Amino acid sequence: MAVNFAPPDPASLRAVRGVELGTAAAEIRKPGRRDLLLIRLAEGSRIAGVFTRNRFCAAPVVVAKEHLAGRPQVRALVVNTGNANAGTGSDGIARARTTCNAVARALGCDLRQVLPFSTGVIMEPLPVDRIVAGIPACVADLKPDNWRSAAEAIMTTDTVPKACARHLSIDGEETVVTGIAKGAGMIRPDMATMLAFAATDANVAEPALNALVREVAEGSFNRITVDGDTSTNDAFMLIATGAASSTPISMGTPQYAQLRGAIMQVAQTLAQSIVRDGEGATKFITVRVERGASVAECRKVAYAIAHSPLVKTAFFASDPNLGRLLAAIGNSGIDDLEVDGVSVYLGDVLVASEGGRHPDYREEDGQRVMEQSEIVVRAVLGRGAAEATIWTCDLSHEYVTINAEYRT
Amino acid sequence: MAVNFAPPDPASLRAVRGVELGTAAAEIRKPGRRDLLLIRLAEGSRIAGVFTRNRFCAAPVVVAKEHLAGRPQVRALVVNTGNANAGTGSDGIARARTTCNAVARALGCDLRQVLPFSTGVIMEPLPVDRIVAGIPACVADLKPDNWRSAAEAIMTTDTVPKACARHLSIDGEETVVTGIAKGAGMIRPDMATMLAFAATDANVAEPALNALVREVAEGSFNRITVDGDTSTNDAFMLIATGAASSTPISMGTPQYAQLRGAIMQVAQTLAQSIVRDGEGATKFITVRVERGASVAECRKVAYAIAHSPLVKTAFFASDPNLGRLLAAIGNSGIDDLEVDGVSVYLGDVLVASEGGRHPDYREEDGQRVMEQSEIVVRAVLGRGAAEATIWTCDLSHEYVTINAEYRT
Q1: Given an 8 Å threshold on Cβ–Cβ distance, is A56 in contact with B339?
Q2: What are phi and psi of A338, to 5 degrees?
Q3: Residue A304 touches chain B, beta carbons under 8 Å
Q4: Which of residues 377-406 of B touch A (CB under 8 A)?
Q5: Are residues A222 and A300 in the same domain?
Q6: B78 and B158 share one domain
Q7: In a domain, A17, yes or no
């Protein structure tokens, strides 16, 4: 069960002018469930994206990056779940291209105007015939208000579909930002999350769009971790159709900041929903590291806490075995860390200072915080003014069950 | 249950001339179990050690390093389980010194000739009064053939005591190496394992002993990981009493190589037994990375595989979901890794090559290997001549249970 996260109300998911979505059940892994998504973009739309840094990046990532490098007018995105088309060598690349080609023929565009995305099991051949056979049904289903069914069609071990929308007024023009994401395991994005797509009808100049997608990824998807495993298929794509205005937004303008704020809200909500629905998650944990010498070292400490199986199992058990937090901080690879200067808070409770347990700390205070489903851990390093926040979840029996039985 | 690892036969554990061991039940955490160990060394013994690099290193580690820095004639080691005396600030240091002082008074030596060691729960005050009260019983129990009960007295979540002995003849002198270790979780030693003590009656010159302990730690305890969490208390101590010979062994001699071989065997057996008895372990996994550009990058890849929760749960499930191996390799942080050059073997089965599944790989072959309790994973990087091996275990429900319920 996801932690304090209900499926989005379809009525809340605003359509984005210039974006149509269609889904189909292509029987990629399981019969009868929608597992194929087609997104069609109106002419003039711009798109920018960030991708996984995993060296075994999937064939669709290779092809999408290749297509984007040609700076085409992207007209369609095609996404399948159930098979990642990763670790599939040159045959996988060919199958990703075949998928793009089928979409291009169905929509009357060039194959380089189509970006492919896949998620699911790794190192198994993509069932490209079934995907090609499913495309006409996706085309027939294309509608602007299909965001909720699109979110459902890209789920793998997700237990709830993830979608979010915001609207804002930019220079008096009503503007919408809507996004969807999927992901529950193999989540420690280094560039972006497993798969996330956000669209706005704002008119955004290309350099501004490239900057936006990076800034937003950095503040949202790149700040979450479930299990520290960076996926082979991570991608976050940001679409700007331009339907809301004829004036493109440039970097460094108030309009840019305004739009970035709305997109960041959508992306953070989606990113946090991935953690809330993390495989086996029972707790949503915010790890905040403050007063570090640099953002990089704050992140090191935050990930050391968030990736420690001992910390994660203590959260699962609601056990204030908080010495594990100190061990994780000491283990984060900051060679000149003086532990006497470190303080650790659990929620509002000061747990440790001056290298050890704080004299006023009482186990029952720690226990009270540990029993909550939303917990903030704060490590104050006392070395500088930098800070970093990441979001993670606990490690439960259910995580082991899900990943031991993933392919059955 | 430990993986293919039975408790050592007490008769196989050779006494080491010059070393006596005594244990007692000091009621540190649980009544009625032996939880305190005293090791007395004959005059003229030499000792060298390596310690955790965790910045929140425990008070006994601080004190032991401080005492060693004074280059004393170490006469005793005192070890308690049940409480790590870590994350305890200056009060913890004082309690470790009080322990040493009590031992010094009981044995008639200086407190700086005593080294303290602790293992157990972090951030709780060391019950030093009970430890001091238990020391006379340890003294009364001192005997050369107490290695097996010593191994039992330092256990925490270990399910079997860990001890091992070898004997060899150096220049015609019968020489013995005997060691004990403990550890099952919070295991990813960066300098040494949780706690390990090995003694030989060989006569070893001090620089040679310092070199030996480092070389052996590097090839044994530093090559294992259970959960990637480096403990606050790790220590590996190597004792040479010199009783076997009047001629000290120096570095770079055939005798040095001979002794190192025997100590390495003892240390590797102990290190591997820690993995075999890793918390919840059901599989013993050797990860071997070959043909890397450097040993450092081979280790990076090996640890990326060994620390991936997804890889570990697949091993637990005996599921050849081997794409997770590729994802872990791709995720190991080698930015210029060309995946086309990587081959992956599971046991004798070639699973992947040229960036994807090998054409001859059949799921049933992978399944056959996955069902074994001892599995070798080989990643061949095709970048150079370096290699590295580490040993790890799987991630099971039992790991979560043990660590969720550790303090109950």
Answers
A1: yes
A2: -95, 110
A3: no
A4: 395-397, 399-401, 403-406
A5: no
A6: yes
A7: yes
Contact residues, chain A, for B363 at CB < 8 Å: none
Q: Under an 8 A CB cutoff, do B352 and A123 touch?
A: yes
Residue B324 in contact with partner chain A when CB distance is under 8 A: yes
Q: Which stretch of DSSP H or E encloses residue A139?
A: helix A128-141
This prediction has a pTM of: 0.82
**A335 domain-assigned:** yes
- Nearest C-alpha of chain B: how many angstroms from A280? 12
C-beta atoms of A327 and B122 within 8 A: yes
Which chain A residues touch B319 with a CB distance below 8 Å?
404-408
Has residue A62 been placed in a domain? yes
ipTM: 0.77
Catalytic residue list of B: 193
Helix, strand or coil, per DSSP, at residue A263: helix
Beta strand segments in B81-161, E: 114-118
Tell whether A363 is within 8 A of chain B (Cβ).
Answer: no
Q: Which of B122, B310, B332 has the CB atom closest to A323's CB atom? A: B122
A251 shares its domain with A348 = no
Of B294, B408, B18, the residue nearest B178 (C-alpha): B18
- How far is CA A138 from each of CA A24, A80, B138, rounded to the nearest angstrom? 5, 11, 77
In a domain, B261, yes or no: yes
Measure Cα distances from A259 to A42, A62, A262, A272, B371 in Å.
20, 29, 5, 20, 53
Cβ(A74)–Cβ(A241) below 8 Å: no
Q: Are residues B114 and B181 in the same domain?
A: yes
**For residue A198, which phi and psi values (nearest 5 degrees)?**
-130, 145
In the structure, what pLDDT confidence band is assigned to residue B192 with cuts at 50, 70 and 90? very low
Q: Which of A218, A244, A276 is the last residue of a domain?
A: A276
Number of CB pairs, chain A paired with chain B, less than 8 A apart: 224
Of B38 and A194, more confident: B38
pLDDT tens digits along A337-365: 998 899 999 999 999 998 888 999 999 99
Same domain (yes/no): A183, A302: no
**Chain segment A74-105, per-residue pLDDT in tens:** 999 999 999 999 888 899 999 999 999 999 99
The residue segments making up the domain with residue B134 are 10-274
| Alpha carbons B106 and B135: distance in angstroms, whole number | 8
Report the pLDDT value the prediction gives residue B218, as an integer from 0 to 100.
86
CATH of the domain at A96: 3.60.70.12
Stretch B169-193: mean pLDDT: 77
Q: Which residue of B has its CA nearest to A229?
A: B308
Test A326 with B400 for CB contact under 8 angstroms.
no
Q: How confident is residue A191, by pLDDT bands cut at 50, 70 and 90?
A: very low
Chain B residues within 8 A of A365 when measuring between CB atoms: none
Residue type for position A318: S
Which one of A193, A232, A241, A392 is the catalytic residue?
A193
Q: What is the CATH number of the domain that holds B386?
A: 3.10.20.340
- Look up residue B274 and give its amino acid: I
Question: Quick check: B328 and A356 CB within 8 A?
Answer: no
* Cβ within 8 Å, pair B339-A404: no
Residue A139 has pLDDT above 60, yes or no: yes
Grade residue A288 by pLDDT with cuts at 50, 70 and 90: very high
Same-domain pairing of A210 and A184: yes
pLDDT digits (tens, 9 = 90+) for B13-29: 999 999 999 999 999 98
